[in-house]
Amino acid sequence: QPRLVIAVDGPSGSGKSSVCRAAATQLGAAYLDTGAMYRAATWYCLDQQVDLDDEDAVALAVEELPLTISTDPQHQTITVGQADISAEIREPRISEKVSEVATNRRARTLLVAAQRRIIDEAGFIVAEGRDITTVVAPDAQVRVLLTASAEARLRRRGAQLGGTQDAEALKRQVLERDKKDSTASNFTEAADGVAVLDSSDLTFEETVNSLIGRVEQAQ
Ligand code: C5P
């Protein structure tokens, strides 16, 4: 197995997670969803009734967070202690609060260190998030910023939620989260050496193939 790290960043609704999971599956690589780790940290803070405005309390909670995350692209499970929270971390109550935890500097430092350990241990892995190409794994052999127009992202996020949501409310939520997130890391512009993959006019398969093509070039 090659030692090869594929780092992918992008905003929510860019299709990042499904694209990276599919690419990892086809490549036979491991997969790390770093957003799930920020979501799990948020779940834990809410579970422990930590005041999210209290920076020290949030950092302490993340320090003691008993987190396990699977790196199998086809079986994504994430647990905190004995609790399997794989489904719960996708709930709106988590999406609404996650940026508050993600902007906590100490929490980020801790989670970034955990992500580096997971990537190191896996060796051959597709890791995705907001700061993988720049902070977590800047020396990755493949570094890609996966983007999509605001329209494409809203369309996909709407479809993901079953099309039952009020379009205006959805737009507000997605753009609001982008704005909050962008204070923690810049994922809207590609850093030096990071390739932009714009999926706005690509099908899912085309996007996966484009990512795999870059990996094959690097191998
Ligand atoms: O990718 P996903 O939407 O699940 O990420 C959830 C949240 O986790 C993001 O909105 C962002 O606040 C945070 N995040 C981050 N850095 C990463 C991955 C996610 O700050 N590398």
UniProtKB/TrEMBL annotation:
The keyword Kinase applies. It is found in: Cytoplasm. Gene3D superfamilies: P-loop containing nucleotide triphosphate hydrolases. Coiled coil: none annotated. GO terms for molecular function: ATP binding; dCMP kinase activity. InterPro entries: Cytidylate_kin, Cytidylate_kinase_dom, P-loop_NTPase. It comes from the Bacteria. One of its GO terms (biological process) is pyrimidine nucleotide metabolic process. Keywords: ATP-binding, Cytoplasm, Kinase, Nucleotide-binding, Transferase. Its EC number is 2.7.4.25. This is Cytidylate kinase.
